[in-house]
Give the backbone structure.
Amino acid sequence: MTDHILLMSNISKSFAGVHALRGVSFDLYPGEVHALLGENGAGKSTLIKIITGVHQPDSGEITLNGQQIHLANPLESRQLGIAAIYQEPSLFPDLDIAENIFVGRQPTRAGGQVAWSDMYREASKLLDSLGVHLEPRTKARHLSVAQQQMVEIARALSVQAKILIMDEPTSSLTLAEVDDLFRIVRQLRQAGTAIVFISHRLEELFELADRVTVLRDGAYVDTKLISAVTTDSLIQMMVGRQLADLFPKLAVEAGEVVLQVEGLSRDGAFQDVSFELHRGEILGMAGLVGAGRTDVARAIFGVDAISGGTIKINGQPVTITGPQKAMQLGLAYVPEDRQHHGLILPMRISYNITLPILSEFAKQGWLDTDQEQQSAAASATQMEVKAAGLWQRVRELSGGNQQKVVLAKWLATKPRILILDEPTRGIDVGTKAAVHGLMSELAAQGMAILMISSELPEILGMSDRILVMREGRLTGHFSRAEATQEKIMLAATQAVEQV
Amino acid sequence: MTTQPSTPPRQSIFLTLARFREVGISIFIVLLMIIVSLRSPNFLSLENFRDILLNISILAIVALAQTMVIITRGIDLSVGSMIGLVAMMVSFVVTENQAMSPWLALLLGMAIGFGLGCFNGFIITAGGVPPIIATLGTLSIYRGTVFLYSQGTWVNAFEMPQSFKLLAKGTPLGLPNLVIFALVIAAIIYYFLNYTRPGRDIYAVGSNPDAAKVAGIRVQRIIFMVYVISGVLCGLAGVLWASRFEAAQTNTALGFELQTVAASVVGGVNIFGGSGTVSGVLLGALLLGIINNALTLIRISPFWQLAAQGALILLAVIVDSVILRRLQQTLSVRKTA
């Protein structure tokens, strides 16, 4: 091969004291597709953001074409010929395709007049060279995700990008669209573009990539030729760490079935999801981000409508028309994004906790605030919320304490079925252990818990049984005894035949 | 029916037209004109149209300024106060300098507006204050300055030089100067928004601010610019206002900001930014002018006029958004292979 186009060595980056990358190295040659692989949180995104100039490394060197560079912002990186395409395209919905390609550097005539005809002609040429048949006058808001990505690729071509970074470009595409995309990627590789390709679908890497670099927990694992690895060895590289014995799950005899889901579907989100949840059980739901787990939880809780399937609670078929109804049926859902869906940040702790059960304290339309305070205090104590007082605004609490408030809020509704979506994401180890302890205790008291988590150790350590989802379908079902990180990862990343 | 996949489907003229944002409001204007002219034949007279055009010219100029601000996801609530302040200051100056050229007065007004717009832009970009708050503040500051400057007095018609009064009303080109001003400004803004990079950047910033930044557009500079443009055009409008009404009062153009927002929104400008056209806004201003005019002509009780005006504006927006946007969506042809 020729010389490196990009060489990154010993890159470290931490955010607020947490290491996102530790001494990571990455190299890239012109005309290769280099896959970047790792679990959620392994540091792929941070590495990409350093290449694109969004973040600056704390230490380490970046060399581009043999010259050491320092990227202060995305614009500099773009001017050096680095372009990135993200999972969610970032186009201008109100502008047409041609202008989206040339925005900020539209061709002009003498006197600075924007030359629309030149722009449309150039745009057509670019799109044709990609083999994409789009009318350059179409507004971007009318394009599908796949079409928007094509426009972004055309934009990258128009600036003669030497390095093209594609961050999970296939995650929202159909199979035919993926084929189209791959055809274009190969064409670019042929033309000498260096491509960094991120995907969780291992089979795609084998089809497309030349080399693969694996990251784990922010550290560099290895770089290999794709011909030198197998699915198994890749998964081994991704997960190969020891299971910390942090998880205090008490053994509980599972009771009767409290929640039964059969053939649940929601168009465009998930299909044919069936499972049972028992009293006293923690059912783990593993999978990659975007596999449809949250969609299932939201559908069961009545936030989103379902397009097919049935839900039974305690053996009775139910129609859950909305969260209100779900709460009446004894369900509680603790969403993943507590800042947006779980809490009202400017409001005090006590009001947040009692929000779902306010009607219990209402007498002829007036709130019995004393009773409300008592109830809030009881829940907060149970959850060991650390705060100056219940009057404190939730905004001022740490992430871990915020999560405890969310849990306290839902426990106040005295649910029998608790759905937890990423219950310990972004909170410190101590609080994590406290949350895990509480979950175990609740299960022992007979609560049924459905826990969605992207952290394999948490899944393996806390769950009695484990479900795995991939692209909107259940692809694995393991008992606590038979589950391993490798099995779960395989089910989460590669289609397992299911008939 | 056979289909040929390689050629786009044939569309009727109506459907082709419907893809343009301005069709909805045009239809509404025509319907309104038919109804009004049935009730009041005077409506269709040339003289009445001249009246309507005269009445909406200043509105059109300021609504176009407001449109540029709204496209960047902002709003300029201080336009009425800027007009009032400029009208007052320039009127004082021309009253004391009777021989002053009206064109110089116009430049003076635009210079004052430039300063006021810079102040707005500075608070919003450098101060990081949301536009609605920043201009709500300057709305009061600028209006308060009118009182301070004039000490509560006003300038009357007999104090103003004749040449100044003719600035808006003279008809050397057939149409009143005021209407010509509006047309020229509209043409300039049309060119600016469609054929210059800063003009295109306004749309990009409003459509996706983050992407605009990554695309190398200096977002803050563009935002600053639209408030300055708004100030300059309000300066121009303030001078024309004083000339047309031959007076400058402390309450000149009080509440005008709401009319400019109404004209923009009725004209299809997206209140959340990113889109809006000059032709749409001109039609929006025209519709507001026709509504005002018609309500008087067909003798709607003055007690009802304001409410009727509001109802018609809502109706126009609903007709446009509900019916036509839906039609547009089904028509947005995706040409894929």
User: Anything to note?
Assistant: The first helix of chain B runs from residue 13 to 18. Chain B has a mean pLDDT of 87. The radius of gyration of chain B is 21 Å. Chain B touches chain A through 29 residues (CB under 8 Å).
